[in-house]
Write a structure and sequence with these properties.
Layout lengths: L1 H26 L21 H9 L6 H6 L7 H20 L4 H8 L2 H11 L6 H8 L13 H23 L3 H53 L3 E2 L1 H21 L5 H17 L1 H4 L3 H23 L9 H11 L7 E2 L21 H4 L6 E4 L6 E9 L4 E5 L5 E6 H10 L2 E3 L6 H95 L5 E4 L9 E9 L4 E5 L7 E4 H10 L2 E3 L3 H19 L1
Antiparallel strand pairs: 1-2, 3-4, 3-7, 4-5, 5-6, 8-9, 8-12, 9-10, 10-11
Helix pairs in contact: 1-17, 2-8, 4-5, 4-6, 4-17, 7-9, 8-9, 9-10, 9-11, 10-11, 11-13, 13-14, 17-18, 17-19
Length: 607
């Protein structure tokens, strides 16, 4: 039930990742990438499948973005983003997958395939089968470029991947790649079943071999320590190496070093050395008799308990002969107890052997360790610690032995950095999720920035519009004010001109009146005037001044016959003369000259 819930959670998470991927492919913008300056029509976008297929076939390690920059072709926004996202995913995979660098680099070349499919399918570019296969590559975390059979098998499978992806490029269908993934997973399941049997068999075999080595080294250490720098009779030396050394190894194999048989066997070895070395046994003759009486029976007793069968009688003949000679006080011929030229090597530390505490070993079991750097690094699996020998059993994780390493050397290499734990591997699905989530955060930030930029641009445009409107308003106001001022000035000028003209007319009128009054005053009795006709059918009327009445300022005119009397007041006559309806004969030319001079002065004043 828990596994089912976990799977459903992973499916939902990947669906969300797919949705985010679609948004990232269409919306993200990465600085320094060759985005087109405008929206391109489908016919204007270059086909990049031949280029990506060539890079995949050549197994190139460079990023897709560098490849598309190296050619002078036109790419769409989606193509550029697909290239960037594929590079980003595989770049993170290279750094965090934990696989061997050579293996991770070959898998990362799928960036060309991913970029092509992302441009075509968007969020559907990475089917579940493909992601599960990439997640399953964690089973290859122990792969090293050792040149061994298992290493070559993996490389051969990756060569088959090259063929499958190339076929997908050519056909435009992803099915060949998915079939490769399913076949890989089936093979991995079969190999895992075989590996279980190999691991069980290896552990059983190595534990038996470890017991043999423990028995060999411990027995050597006990014998070497007892015989070191000793000279003993040849019979004693022969019995120790021919029989007792074999007995010691048998005890260790069956019982270890904590039982009674091991204690008695070690004690009897000391007795054999003590009896055979005159320098030791001659100092205590009583004890020599006691040991001599008991040693044969005790050797036989221990032998019978260990082998569950009696010791051959002739095996103890040499030792018994030495005992008899020693009891008689004789000194037998002595030989070096240990062979010369270091033909019998031994290490006393095996006698004080103790296995490391389980709490130290348990966290290390089942872990991967790395030795070396880069492509030359070698990976080893801590399969087990053989307690009999304190040796770390290295495997390739699949039941194949890679070697043994004594525990002290393992601890020293681990502390010195020559050996380091392999960090936890990150599945591809997790790499994909984290990468797309990270890019989605960047996209959201870019959208926010674009929105803010749009708002700021709109605000700037509105500000500019308002400023322009304000400038236009001020210009119009200034223009209106200018026009009003011009109109005011023109109106003031017109008023001044009108006033001047009226003043001039008043002056002229006054001058005319003055001139006319001067004429009227100059008319003497008998002087003639002409009154213009009121209509076209009447002729002008000539009148002569008959009487001037100064008291009433009245002038009385008559015609030639003294009839048709007409009376004019001085002011009335002046007005008639100014109006041009009456002319004074005799001096009218002089009046006309006066009017001409007045009119001339008016014109000069106007100019």
């Amino acid at each position: 039930m828990q596994q089912s819930t976990q799977n459903k959670g992973e499916v939902r998470a990947r669906k969300r990742v797919a949705e985010k991927m679609a948004d990232v492919l269409s919306g993200i913008r990465v600085p320094d990438l060759p985005y087109p300056a405008r929206q391109l029509s489908p016919d204007a976008v270059s086909d990049w499948r031949p280029l990506l297929l060539s890079c995949w076939t050549e197994q190139r390690d460079e990023p897709v973005t560098r490849v598309i920059r190296s050619v002078s072709l036109t790419w769409s926004v989606r193509q550029i983003n697909a290239a960037y996202v594929a590079d980003r995913i595989m770049g993170v995979f290279l750094k965090t997958s934990g696989l061997h660098p050579e293996l991770a680099r070959r898998i990362a070349r799928l960036r060309f395939f991913f970029a092509w499919r992302m441009n075509l399918d968007g969020a559907g570019a990475l089917p579940e089968t493909l992601i599960e296969w990439l997640d399953g590559l964690q089973d290859c975390r122990g792969w090293s470029a050792s040149g061994g059979r298992s290493a070559r098998v993996t490389l051969d499978q990756l060569d088959a991947l090259v063929i499958a992806v190339s076929g997908s490029f050519n056909s435009g269908d992803i099915e060949q790649v998915l079939e490769f993934c399913r076949h890989w997973q089936d093979d991995a399941a079969r190999r895992e079943q075989q590996n279980d049997r190999l691991r069980d068999r290896l552990l059983e075999t190595e534990q038996g071999a470890a017991r043999q080595r423990r028995a060999e080294h411990t027995a050597r250490a006990l014998v070497g320590r007892a015989l070191q720098n000793r000279e003993l009779p040849q019979a004693v030396v022969g019995f120790i190496f021919d029989h007792w050394f074999r007995l010691l190894k048998q005890i260790i194999r069956e019982e270890g070093t904590g039982g009674e048989n091991w204690r008695h066997a070690g004690k009897l070895l000391e007795w054999l050395v003590w009896v055979g070395d005159p320098g030791l046994s001659d100092q205590d003759r009583n004890r020599l008799y006691t040991v001599g009486e008991q040693i044969g029976d005790r050797i036989t007793d221990v032998w019978n308990r260990v082998y569950r069968k009696p010791l051959e009688e002739k095996a103890l003949e040499g030792v018994q002969s030495v005992m008899i000679a020693r009891l008689r006080g004789e000194t037998p011929d002595l030989v070096p107890a240990l062979p010369g030229d270091d033909r019998f090597s031994w290490d006393a530390s095996w006698l004080t052997f103790t296995a490391p505490p389980e709490e130290e070993v348990s966290p290390l079991k089942g872990k991967w360790f790395v030795e070396g750097e880069g492509t030359s690094e070698q990976r080893r699996f801590f399969f087990a610690l053989l307690p009999e020998t304190r040796e770390v059993l290295w495997t390739n994780g699949a039941g194949v032995k890679l070697g043994l390493l004594p525990w002290p050397r393992f601890v020293s290499a681990l502390e010195g950095g020559a050996l380091r734990p392999l960090p936890p591997l990150k599945p591809f699905g997790e790499v994909l999720t984290e990468t797309i989530t990270s890019l989605s955060v960047v996209l959201d930030r870019q959208k926010l920035q674009r929105s803010q930029a749009a708002k700021e641009a709109k605000a700037r445009a509105e500000t500019l519009r308002r400023e322009k409107a304000e400038v236009e308003r001020r210009r119009q106001e200034e223009e209106t004010a200018r026009r009003e001022e011009l109109a005011r000035r023109e109106e003031a000028a017109a008023v001044r001109r009108l006033a001047d003209e009226e003043a001039e007319q008043d002056r002229l009128l006054r001058e005319k009146e003055a001139a006319a009054r001067e004429l009227v005053d100059g008319i003497k009795p008998g002087g003639w005037i002409v009154e213009e006709s009121r209509s076209e059918d009447q002729a002008p009327l000539r009148l002569k001044l008959a009487v001037r009445i100064n008291a009433s300022k009245k002038l009385v005119f008559v015609d030639r016959l003294g009839l048709n009397r007409r009376e004019f007041l001085v002011d009335k006559l002046v007005d008639e003369i100014v109006a041009g309806r009456i002319r004074v004969l005799g001096i009218s030319a002089q009046f006309d000259d006066t009017l001409s001079r007045v009119v001339g002065r008016i014109r000069v004043g106007r100019n």
